[in-house]
Amino acid sequence: MRIPKHIGIIPDGNRRWAVKNGFSKEMGYEKGLKPGIKVFELCSKIGVKELTFYGFTMDNTKRPSIQTKAFTKACIKAVELLSNKDASLLVVGNTDSPMFPKELLPYTNNRKTFGRGGIKVNFLVNYGWQWDVKNLINNQSNSNNVIGLLHSQDISRIDLVIRWGGRKRLSGFLPLQTVYSDFYFIDDYWPDFKEEHFYQAIEWYNKQDITLGG
Amino acid sequence: MRIPKHIGIIPDGNRRWAVKNGFSKEMGYEKGLKPGIKVFELCSKIGVKELTFYGFTMDNTKRPSIQTKAFTKACIKAVELLSNKDASLLVVGNTDSPMFPKELLPYTNNRKTFGRGGIKVNFLVNYGWQWDVKNLINNQSNSNNVIGLLHSQDISRIDLVIRWGGRKRLSGFLPLQTVYSDFYFIDDYWPDFKEEHFYQAIEWYNKQDITLGG
């Protein structure tokens, strides 16, 4: 079986899950923590080498502050939970903004090893696609590797993007690392994560003809 | 009904169609011409303002020359057919390469009006996502509009991408104009185009909640 080297996760539908279950919207984010750790564990188990989570974006920070506080708190908590595992974490996002949580600054410049290390985990926090790509402007490089010039240069090409919550779009998720990615969409909301979702995505990916645009 | 302003078309599956129908692979491209004109007419009819077709990419030119000749010929023929319609055409791609057909050079620098003009048609010919984005490097601009600095700067944000041929990926299609696009995937091969495909995509798009990443 061909296991994707690098999986991107778009964990959408937290707010819709909350409303559907009788909570206020911002209550949905905390319900995304357990699925996140579960996906991490499944990826470690099957031998995925790199895993990127869409935390929150600069676009998202325009939402009501009760929501921005709730998703920021959930991101900090996610890193706490991960710190008890074996992983190598990098947080990527615009740190020159009050919306970036200072608790996560220690993870932004260098990849931090938790436990025995292992799978690379990238966590997008206050990420913006324009912010990311603007690092190319005024760059003096002659490199042919465009990705190596981005703010997100330590995040490699993504093989498989899995998005929960029924929407079929990238919403600004790493536009240059996803140019050749295969997309797997799941209707269920992220807090309703089931292991089957993950395994179905992996089985589907195994059947795709990978050409990298060729 | 909310009609997308700008639709992107990924007309995939020509070679698989040819093989399935007992032809050699390169015979499939010509069968994509009629569907292309049909989509153009449907877009004009319902009031789409801009339409972008994925012709061929720099990645594609690594294929056997019998195929590259066939898809290049089909692209030239497509422009001939369009020249009998009311449209405003721009061809976008890397012209500094022998793979770019000289017949299409007149359409690369300025948008050319056919008939009474009208819908903007962008045609990607020998397009490469790295080529496109590299225009940002060494750019002296202070602009906040990243898309305006690309080689493809005259192509605007895309609302809806429709891909035929069953694959769920972008394959390098305008990575920055598609950051917020909704994706509609059709299993049928492009030469098996039916009007229903198009109308189903439009109806599906009408039901999406458009947030532009917010």
From TrEMBL, chains A, B:
Pfam families hit by this protein: Prenyltransf
Family per record: Belongs to the UPP synthase family. Z-FPP synthase subfamily.
Domain of life: Bacteria
Keyword Transferase tagged: yes
The keyword Amino-acid biosynthesis appears for this protein: no
Alphabetical keyword list: Transferase
The protein's name in its UniProt record: Undecaprenyl diphosphate synthase
GO BP of this protein: polyprenol biosynthetic process
One GO MF term: ditrans,polycis-polyprenyl diphosphate synthase [(2E,6E)-farnesyl diphosphate specific] activity
Coiled coil: none
InterPro entries the record matches: UPP_synth-like, UPP_synth-like_sf
